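Revision sheet: structure tokens.
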Amino acid sequence: MRDEESLTLVLPPELPDGTSSVGRGSDVRRAAVDWLARELEKVHAERRKAGIRGWVGAQKVRRQDPKKPPRAVTGQPTGERNPRFATLDRKVGREQAETMCGWLSLYGAAQLAWSSGDQTAIFPAGTWLAPRLWGAAAHPA
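Predicted:
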């Protein structure tokens, strides 16, 4: 085995749009950026055609706090209306939100244990997919 090896890096001889890499520098970068913009526009067009909306832009991604997990990950009630249930009584709504968060917490712990190899993990009552798909145990209703 040698103590030293060498590696020669070269640009591809032809970029996707037919531009030669011989010019290099800004010409190659510009050609690559143009090609990427065209590809991205194709993706946007496909999403529009499929009726998919809500593309997260670069600015919105940059504004996110990387140290703060999304609310869906924390499992904490947000205090906002939730379309899973509706009530005119705020107390009942709060109780239901707390119950749901508790259930999601139990389900998440069981799913983590199951995916870590613990086939004895028991999912909370009301679990539908895990027993049918994976053969997992669930508490009776």
